[in-house]
Every structure is written in structure tokens, then in C-alpha cells.
Structure prediction request, 944 residues.
Amino acid sequence: MADAARAQPRTPAPFRVGPALLVLGLGVLGLAGTVANLAMLLPAGGWWAAMVRPDASVPVQLLAAYSFAPRLVVSLLAGAALGLAGAILQQVLRNPIASPTTLGIESGANLALSSALIWMPGLLDFGREWVTLTGGLLAIAVVLLLSRRSGFAPLVVILAGMVAGLYCASLAALLALFESHYLAGLFLWGAGSLSLQGWEEPLFLAPRLAIAALAAALLLRPLALLGMEDAQTRSLGLSVGMVRLAALLVAVALTAFVVASVGCIGFIGLAAPALARIAGARRIGAWLLASAATGAALLWATDQMVQVAAGVYAQMIPTGAVTALFGAPLLLWIIPRLRLPPAAAGSLAVRLGQSAGRPGRRLLLLGALLLLALTVSSLLGPDPLGSNLGGWSLALPGDPSAVWTLRLPRAVAALAGGTLLAVAGCVLQRLTRNPMASPEVMGVSAGAAGGLTVAIFLIAETSRLEQTLAASLGAFLALIVLLLVARVSKANPERIILAGIAVGALLDALVSVLMASGDPRAILLFNWMTGSTYGLDTSAAGASLLAALALLALLPLVRRWLGLLPLGEDTARALGMPLGAGRLLLLMLAAVATALATLLVGPLSFVGLVAPHAARLLGLRRPLSELYGAALIGALILVTADFLGRTVAFPWQMPAGLVASMIGAPAFLWLLSRKQVLA
Amino acid sequence: MIAPPSPAPALFDLLDAQMRIDGRTLLHPLSLTLPEGRVVGLIGHNGSGKSTLLKLLARQHAATGGEIRFEGRPLSEWGTRAFARHVAYLPQSSPATGSMTGRELVALGRYPWHGALGRFTTVDRQKVEEAITLTDTGAFADRLVDTLSGGERQRVWIAMLVAQDAGCLLLDEPISALDIAHQIETLSLIRRLCRERGTGVIVVLHDVNMAARFCDDIIALHGGRLIARGAPQEIVTPDTLARIYGIPMDVIRGDGGGYVAVPRI
Prediction:
């Protein structure tokens, strides 16, 4: 068949609309929405007059002039800027999936803004665009530094960018938890709200974007050459480094201006250039222009649709979240059609010096460490009751204050959550033959979160069992979508990761929209999303522990399959493994484990990604010892995170999931920077 | 020039087996008998259907028409593991193995015998060691497979197939990534397995000279159809080669009785 595949001509793209037609189509959609909205706002007509010379005595005319019209202009400007930024990044990095979102630039800029707002409000006097620019530049600098050794292999760059982005987002969430009074509005900002009260934002954006666009135009010719290999480019007499730096600066500036003005608007920067390219814009100049135009039209259409759909509540629904709701399915559709450079699979190969002579001994050591952490965590801590409030105390079993009975369930829940996530990560990595797979990266955790969110909002009182079922269903659905994409794109690891990003973003967007609706249940959801073990009682903790132990007991039954699957479908089938049934079983295992863990420690912890790698680093290679080692490491990370979260900022409580991601994300980035090998 | 039926009993029987995907015919209806205990080479141009045929035999794909029987029973009636105990298959590009030592990889060949839950018995262990000895891969048994050179890695994979203890090996271009010395070494190993253990081998090869040198029987496909079948000396003639590859070829006979096909330029 391989022969046949080689001889087979490339399947032609299903249709080729041409970039102009694409922009026109989106534009018609935007125009229709605009007309519909104006008709709702000003049924009497006279729209143009109302926007240009509003009659101050008619409130709806003021609304049209100072809210609707500037919002429209900003959506066009921001969309164009993000589309252009995405196209430049993709060209500079020769990476078809680069974008302000996937490289962490948006989150970095947003985090810089949040922290400046809290700690150094004075900085904002210089102009918030400088703050966001610094944040964005720092983020991309870190990402590029970490992926340098792989020669900026697309997958490595994107992974570093995603994790850096998620890390910034978690930090921003942590800030929001502590300083909620400052940041009430910032949350909406983070989700990209376009609601405006005047012409300041368009006037802020327009000149800055014009300067950046001019710079991009000047860089056009050198950028065209960057599409080639460095050596070739250099032989044509171009200073590759300078051009690349200048172009990156332009792209980051475009993004930073948008973030400073209206917050994070995800996906436009990824979808617009990809759409423009699929529509047939091939030459660099035409492509950059088409990307900007597509971005503008896309955001315009999305924003108008949001207003049509939401009616009077339009102010509350952040358009940035909705772009993800539209953009993510779009991305899923694009992924199989993207032309990726030849897979840099070798660049992520895990290298191991020597294997553990005695995996048993290492597992025992890990177990002992875990036991120690559990003991310390439940017995030791700041004294909440005694006279020396805030001082540390030892609460032994039998102690009258019985503090340990409050602490132990939380530690046990953290332990169970870490175990489940780590096992799910191991299973997914072996199942998809992708060292970067994990519940967090692949959107399975987000699926569980989505399922739970829907359940909380649809059912008045949810029991724990109902929550578990809903979360499992969500996780399973997310996995099914992923596997469908994987099937279409022949299990290419880049595409699977991309599909995971899309699914994750889709569900995050859903949650953001619900949270922004101001529903009181949203606060509950937010607390849970950050992964707090606060308020878990003994029975819930006990049940989770039992579930985790049951999972561990089941693992030996699937160890052979987990050994065969990394060899690929053909070999596994040739050796007589029941592929369909086996895969389905493992998927369900991973989905249920992720769902249970997500209920305990939230969707953001990175343990599922880091723990299997840590186990392999310790020399635990064979399926079963890797699984158990990862489980112990995952449990250890989360028990420690829970302990730190309860004690470091006492009497404040930091959620265990968030603290774990503070540990897990840098650990992952470190792994990534160490493990990459020049392909 | 279909050769007279081989004297050896049949391993595979094909009855109008064919393969069509999305309206394209990869393999036209083909009726064929493949004998036991011989090395059969499949040759042909790119896209001639030789890999497709091998994948149909290996049950990697189901034929879209006709029937294929293995040892007299239709393929669909074989259980997955039962089939794997009889037929071993090596895909075209051996996948990355992650962190796995040679011996661990070879031991995976015992899966059809012990299954998902069965114990790894002393018999299994013995078969693994036997396979390692037979393929002379002892030196790589404790090294990570991904650190081996191409030729060494291919030998470890073949050792895995040997440990599978199947009476029939299906190999898809096992030498395409190897240098000439390793090509000879791998094919000699395959031929030795056939001679010493009576293993039936069906191997897809690109290089007609290698096929002529190591195969008992050659089947040539062209555009998804059988175009020639016979012993090497019957296939390696200017006329037949010209029909198979579509370019004029010369056959040079050496003094020792060997012969080499070269394109006429």
C-alpha cells in the first residue's frame, strides 16, 4: 500500500475559493450581522447620521455612536492586527501553527498587565502598551530560548509556547484569586471583551497598528527569503538574525497593542493565516495582506454574531471567548488540510542513558517519599485554632483539636488526583505514540471540565456521582474527537497536539462564556477550576482513593497492550492484539481517570504530562514500572502542592492544582529543553 | 508465463482477491497459490500493488472482493491471535521503539502465545533466547533498540518475528534502508530461516537482482495485475524485465553462472 500511496496523486483540496472570495464571504456575514444589530438598535433608520452626528437627547443614538460604532472599528483593527501578526510569526518561524496564542505571547502580555495593575500601577502611566509589549517579548524570548536546541522544530516551539502560555494564564488566575477586588474587570479582559464606551480605543489602536503595519511592509522582501533554509538565505546576502528579530518584534508589537486595548482574543492569529493559505494566497505579500483582511473580517463577523445572539447581554459576553468557540472547530477542520513540514519526530525522542537495574527499589523509594509527604502534610501545618494563630504546630492523632482529621482528607484527595492523572498521561502517551500527549495538553481535562460545567448549569443539584458521570462523558467525548482527527491525519503527532489545543480552547471558551455571564454558580466553578481540595470531606476523599487504587490494580491487565501500542498499529495488529477493543478500553480508562482527577484537583495541573517523563528519567522504562512510578511521582507532586498551597500563604489557601501547575509547567519546560535532540 | 504449480503444499490461496479504495483499483482480481517452505519474492514498479498484496495476506487490510485462504481456511475465520501464531508480518518502515531493549522487543513477539493476561512462561523465555541466537543478535539484546544502526535494528525486528514462532513470514521491503552488506546479511538470514526451519517467506523487494539471488520463486506485478511468475532464471530475462519495469533491460551473465540485470542506457 505504501507503494500505492506514493503513486497516488495528492488529494486535491476540496475547494479553492481564492482569498478575495473568502474575505468577501466573511465580510457579507459581518455586514449582515451589523445590519441586523443596527436594525435592533435603531429601528427607525438613519443609522449613518446616528453614528456620525448623534442627537445627544436620544439615548439609542448615543449608544450607536459611542458603543456600537467604536466596537465595530476595534473589531476590524484588532482582527487585522492579529491576522497579520500570526502570518508574520508563521513565516519567520517557518511554522504553520505559530500564532500569538500558541506561542504564549498573548498570555504573557496579559500577565504583565495584571501584575503591573497590582504591584506597579505607576508603570501604566507610561502606557499600557509598553507593559504588554514587555510581557509578550519576555514570553516569546523564553519560548525561543527553550526550543533553540531543536533548531526551532515546529512541534517543540509550539509545545514550549503552549505551556508557557498556560503557565502565564495560571499565574494570572492566581493573581485573580488573591486580589479579586482589583481584578474583577480583568477577568473579562483576559477573555477579550470588546464592549467599549467611546472612541478612545480605536484612536489608541489605529496609529500604533499603522506604524507596525508599515514596518511589516518594509520587511516584506527579507521575509519572503526567510521561507528558505537559513544557509540559502544567507548566501543571498541577508542578515537572517536581524530580519528575524525585527519581524518578531513587529509581530509581538501588533499583538501587544491588541492585548493592551481589548485583551486576549485567541485563534484569529492562528486561523486567519491558515484560512488565507488554504484559500490559495501563496506569495508572501498577498498572503500577509489576505491574512490581515481575513482576520479583520473574521473578528468582525464573530463580534456581530455575538451581538445578534446575545442581544442586550452583549456587553457581558467576551468576544475573545467566542472567537475560540468559532475558531476551535475551524481549526479542527483545518488541521488535516494543513501542509506541515516533514515530521520532526526525532527531535522529541526521549533519550535515556542507562536503565534502572532494579526498578523495584526505585519504586519503593518513591513510595517511602510519598508516605513521608502524606504524614508531614496531614500532621504539620500552621495552627488554625490555638493561641499562636499562624504559628506552626504538630497535630498528632489523638490531639484534641483534631486538625489532622481536616488535613488528611485533602492530602488523600490530592494523592488520588495525582495518581489518576499520571496514569492517564502514561496511557495516553503510549496509546498515541506521542511523548507530549497528556490529559492536559490533549484537552481531555478540559473535556471533563466542560462536562462538569454543563452538568452544573443544567441540573439544579448535582450529586457527586452525577458530576463524575458528566465529567467522564466530557473527557470521553474530547478523546473521541481527538482520535477522529488522528485517524484523518494518520496519527501525525503535530496534528494530534493541535487538535488537543483546539478541543481545549473550545471548552475553555465555553467555561469563560458561562463564567462571564455573572451566574453565581460561576464562582463555584472558578474555585474548582483552579483545583482546590478545600472542602473535600472524608467520604469523598476515601472514595477517590479507592478509585485510584482500583485503577492501579487494573493496570497489570493492560500492560501487554501498553507495551505493543508504541510499536505502531501495523505491528500491534500483526502480533494479534485486538486493536479496536483494546484501544477503546484504554481510552475509557484514561477518560475516567482524567475525569475523577479533574473533579479533585482541577484541569490545570500538568501532572499527567510531567509524571510519566519523570518516571522515565528515573530509568523506569517497562510499561508497568513506568505506570507505577509515574503514579507515585504524580501523587507526590500533588500532595506536596496541596501542602504548600495550604501553608505558604496561610491563612490564604492556594489551590493544589494551581500550585502543581506552578511546579509542573517549569518542570515540563525544563524537560523539553533538555530532551530535544537535533533531528 | 505462469509457472506450473509448485510442488509444496499451499500456504495461501487467493481466489479473485482484489483491492479497491475510493474507486481506484490497487489490485485487480488475482488468483494465486503461495507455497509453503519457500522464499517468494514480490517485485514490481512503485504502485504496482506488491505492498497491497502483502498487506492483504497479513490481514492488515481486508480484501474488497474475492477470497483469501490461509491453510485452507478463509482469513476472516481466523482469530486475531491464532492468525498471529501462524503468520508474522514486518511493516515497511519499522517504527521507533522508544526506550526498549532488544530483548524486550523480541519478547513482544510472544504476545500471540501468552495474550494480554497469560504468564510469560519458561517456554516463552526459551523461544526468545532461541530467536536471539538464531539471528545472532545477542550483542544487541541489552541495548536500546533506537540506539542501534539500521542493519542491527532490522535484525532485532526479524528476531522478534522469529520469536513469534510463525510458520510464515511476510516482509515488506526489509532491506530498503540498508547498505549493500547489510542487505546481503539480512536476506541470507531470511533464507537460512526458510531452509533450517521450513518457514515460508513472502518478501517484497525493490531490487530485482537481490530477488533473483535469494528467492526460490518470483512474482511480478504491474499496475495491480500479475504479469509474471516463475523461478529467477525465468524472470530475469530482458523481455520479462522490460514488461515489468517498462524500460529496456540487459541481463549480463557472469562466468560463475550468476547474472545481473542492468537498465540499458
